[in-house]
TrEMBL record:
This is AB hydrolase-1 domain-containing protein. InterPro entries: AB_hydrolase_fold. Gene3D superfamilies: alpha/beta hydrolase.
Length: 203
């Protein structure tokens, strides 16, 4: 979901991500004038954080300056996590679990898009959706609803979440070299988080 353009799907997700972050860092620091990078993410954002942390240095030279990673209610690289489905919440099981690998044409994601997308076409609908799912404070909800309506213009990223989590991340965490694995990782979880954190134990 969002307003960004659709990525080039002929290139693996982790390569697109690394290329984008390389471009961003080159734009922000044209002379490479930064000493340290900290990567972090929460829930689904832990996937790109881990991709950057483990990216080969020939593909992501700034990775040498990563000094640590913080994961909040993280997801494991499911391709390497056998038995992951037993640890997923019901919502995650339906959105990224085995059914998404079996049901063709991203049918589950398309159904979700129809169900939720129809509610996010107006500020009123987005407000009702946020009240039902997130919180109930009018001014905050209305502001967030306006932002939600503006951002839900391209669903391509949402449609490939399951594919991305199941994809090759460019490395296997169990076989990272010493230079990568020597950098500290902090994993924070909560038993009350029903979106992320299902696979923190594996991490």
């Amino acid at each position: 979901m969002g307003r960004s353009s659709t990525r080039d799907c002929s290139v693996p997700y982790y390569v697109n991500l690394v290329n984008d972050i390389n471009a961003l860092l080159n734009h922000l620091y044209p002379t490479g004038g930064f000493d340290a990078l900290y990567v972090s993410g929460g829930s689904y954002g832990t996937v790109p954080a881990q991709m950057l942390y483990g990216a080969p240095y020939d593909l992501f030279p700034p990775g040498r300056k990563i000094v640590g990673m913080l994961l909040l209610n993280g997801f494991s690289p499911l391709r390497h996590h056998s038995g992951y489905a037993k640890h997923l919440s019901w919502n995650n099981w339906a959105s990224i679990g085995p059914p998404t690998r079996i049901v063709p044409f991203r049918l589950l994601q398309r159904l979700f898009k129809c169900a939720v997308g129809s509610k996010l076409q107006s500020v009123e609908g987005a407000t009702q959706f946020l009240k039902a799912t997130v919180f109930d404070e009018h001014t905050v909800i209305e502001k967030m609803a306006r932002s939600t309506v503006r951002c839900c213009q391209n669903w391509d990223g949402f449609m490939e979440v399951s594919d991305t989590i199941h994809s090759d991340w460019g490395f296997d965490p169990r076989t990272l070299d010493k230079e990568h694995s020597a950098k500290p990782v902090l994993i924070v979880g909560s038993e009350n988080d029903h979106i992320g954190g299902s696979t923190n134990d594996w991490l």
